[in-house]
TrEMBL record, chains A, B:
Main subcellular location: cytoplasm
Catalytic activity: chorismate = prephenate
Keyword Cell division carried by entry: no
Subcellular location: Cytoplasm
UniProt name for this protein: Chorismate mutase
Length: 296, 296
């Protein structure tokens, strides 16, 4: 979340504010994927131990990048922010060397659950298995030349991977703020399904099919604009969607299906998981106040 | 340069290939500036010693970010690539821990001049003094709210700064490849002005006012597309240029004048400086062969 110092909690948790940030993150994610797609698949950078002799590191080249970048970001207090989740286990990262920002406490954080929901391992999986091969497809023809499977640009590729992964992680874990916001709007609707845990019912309360359908249309429109061809004068060249992968900068279908098949479902898992723990450590008296609000 | 393994030197040094890379870098630079403009100016991150007590580092917060990121990238062999220049002095950075990629030798590298032209300190200056204040101007009104001068997002802002600076540095130092390409096309035109050093004459040989004028138009068109407003459906909203800073995501004028006043002139300096040293360590016999080519 763009935690602007001095903003009120109610404003930060307004659904409007959260939606604007989610919509803005779409631009970031699309553009970062376009940047990644400049380089080849470079499968070797995802294989554990492929650089073990040189790096003295048993993970993959990408995991080494994540570890090194996240080690620095941890020192710069990145992971003290409630919307930031590291891919490297926190106990392997250094402590912040500067004081954490004093941020408003926006989320309910029960003592037993730390550091809240973290689905980064699932993000890493779908990104490596589905997204990278999709946007760097070797069947893609760029500027009339077949794209290589491996172009040796391992550093450039992994740098972009880290940026995409961090943006996807923020987008998906933002679900916690969506859940908190919706919970506070009508706690009595959620409480019965939390006390008698019913993930499906909770998912039903937060799912808005019309909003999701609109998101996918918006996303395709954005990818068409950002990933489209421009001529030497910077004028947008009209290209049919199915030609974009071949002629433009990105495969439109991969971006849309990434949101449909992975980003939206994983966000929902984060949202439901957050709600299931929303009453942990909450005193019974507070729950009763919320339930009375139903008829107030 | 996107050093695709196996590509021939002649192809990599073709002006077409170089121009395509320069045009592609415009997209990257515009988008990264848009990303940076999400955060406040945060002047404190550019002040040397402002975080000295916490960081035990006498430079600025941004210089600390550059040092840490570049230390890692040095280990990952980034600065063994001829188009990559670190902002941190190379003797303060670690050695690569993996073998450098075997890259074709595209540039003339006389022994006495290492690591070729480096104008990064000038890039850092104009970026901090002119560009960051321009794109984060406090007179800018975003979504009806005045933008803060300091939003406390020091890590997010500096992370984007590093990315912008690295892209600008690649763009500007690409001038070396432009020079090499143009030199090899007609060495006899350049040789007299190198032997009897005449920077103005060399600048004249590589300056194409029509190309520069076209670049600025293209750049504005791109900034209009990437930085424009989109509605919730992802449809582009038409906004007058002068309103873009207030309503869109970026100040159009800052981007165009950045290229006009800084990127293009600095690139030219790199190009001329490269040419001035193009004959260092070159045997007289080779120079004679080139001069004979004039009449061949």
């Amino acid at each position: 979340m763009n935690f602007t110092s001095g903003a009120a909690v109610s404003e930060l948790l307004s659904l409007d504010h959260i939606r604007n940030q989610l919509i803005r993150l779409e631009d970031t994610i699309i553009f970062l994927l376009i940047e990644r797609a400049q380089f080849a698949y470079n499968k070797k950078i995802y294989q554990p131990g492929a650089f073990q002799d040189e790096l003295n590191f048993s993970g993959s080249w990408l995991e080494w990048f994540l570890f090194e970048i996240e080690s620095f970001h941890a020192k710069a207090r990145r992971y003290t922010s409630p919307d930031e989740h590291a891919f490297t286990p926190l106990d392997k990262l250094p402590q912040p060397i500067i004081k954490p920002q004093s941020l408003p406490s926006l989320l309910h954080q029960p003592a037993a659950k730390h550091p809240s929901v973290n689905v980064n391992h699932r993000i890493l999986d779908f990104y490596i298995q589905q997204i990278v091969p999709g946007i760097t497809s070797t069947t893609r023809i760029a500027k009339g030349k077949a794209v290589l499977e491996d172009d040796g640009n391992y550093g450039s590729a992994a740098t972009r991977d880290v940026e995409v992964l961090q943006a996807l992680s923020r987008r998906i874990h933002f679900g916690m703020f969506v859940s908190e916001s919706k919970f506070l709007e009508a706690p009595h609707d959620f409480i019965p399904h939390i006390l008698n845990p019913n993930p499906e019912a909770l998912a039903g309360l937060i799912t808005k099919p019309a909003v999701e359908a609109k998101l996918l249309i918006r996303l395709a429109n954005k990818a068409r604009v950002y990933g489209g061809e421009m001529d030497a004068d910077g004028k947008v060249v009209e290209v049919a969607d199915e030609e974009m992968a071949a002629r433009g900068k990105i495969d439109l279908a991969t971006i849309v299906s990434m949101y449909k098949d992975w980003v939206i479902p994983l966000t929902k898992d984060v949202e439901v998981d957050y709600l299931l723990h929303r009453l942990d450590d909450v005193p019974q008296s507070q729950i009763e106040v919320w339930m009375k609000g139903k008829t107030a």
